[in-house]
Recover the amino acids of this structure.
């Protein structure tokens, strides 16, 4: 079997054995159910409340999983001294890193499908039909998946150059700041300093990948969101390339 694929499969199984991953996934499910319960306490607009709270819960949980699991993939292996026997075999460090990321990506997408199916079931039950599971809903789920994969790549990048704690801290900071890139751009346009402009170019535009409004108001997902998805894919690829470059030069002793 291809070494990258082998490492990805092992990583995928490892992630699903971790209690924190299971806890966060359960937390996401409870949040989605809570969204349905809260909507029952309001008058009208149930679909909008369930959709908004459910999608937000999915986004929160998935990003937390991407940050805390991704931050420990490389740095954790170095700290536990389990990486040296692996790279001593005919497996390059870059192959190892890509395999670990692919395993993480697979786990994130499975989480996305499970939470999306649960939210879809809640929406369909509320509507009495499968009508809410439309193109807007599926597009919103897909864009959330792009966020997961991008944040996961950022977490792997920091994990390849620092400790688990620092990697989680930096990745979480980038994930949070990436949700507010529009505000950063507004600050850039209204400020003479170079810092907002630098942040605009360095941060992933995660805020543009939020399609909650399209689901809530049943409107098409704007083309800008899909352009942001392509930009995020490029950002993730760049982060992985930098991670591979840094990991190849890192002293593992």
């Amino acid at each position: 079997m291809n070494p990258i694929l082998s490492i990805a499969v092992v990583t995928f199984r490892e992630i699903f054995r971790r209690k924190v991953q299971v806890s966060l996934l359960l937390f996401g499910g409870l949040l989605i159910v809570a969204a349905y319960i809260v909507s029952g306490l309001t008058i009208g607009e149930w679909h909008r409340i369930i959709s908004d709270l459910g999608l937000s819960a999915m986004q929160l949980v998935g990003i937390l999983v991407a940050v805390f699991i991704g931050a420990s993939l490389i740095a954790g292996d170095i700290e536990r001294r389990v990486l040296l026997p692996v790279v001593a075999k005919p497996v390059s460090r870059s192959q190892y890193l890509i395999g670990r990321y692919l395993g993480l990506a697979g786990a994130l997408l499975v989480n996305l499908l499970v939470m999306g199916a649960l939210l879809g079931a809640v929406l369909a039950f509320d509507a009495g039909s499968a009508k809410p599971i439309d193109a807007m809903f599926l597009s919103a789920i897909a864009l959330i998946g792009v966020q997961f994969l991008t944040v996961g790549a950022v977490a792997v990048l920091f994990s390849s150059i620092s400790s688990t704690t620092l990697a989680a801290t930096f990745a979480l900071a980038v994930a949070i700041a990436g949700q507010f890139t529009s505000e950063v751009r507004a600050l850039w346009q209204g400020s003479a300093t170079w810092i907002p402009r630098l942040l605009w170019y360095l941060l992933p535009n995660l805020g543009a990948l939020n399609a909650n409004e399209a689901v809530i108001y049943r409107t098409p997902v704007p083309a800008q969101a899909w352009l942001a998805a392509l930009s995020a894919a490029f950002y993730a690829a760049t982060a992985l390339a930098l991670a591979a470059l840094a990991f190849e030069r890192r002293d593992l002793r």
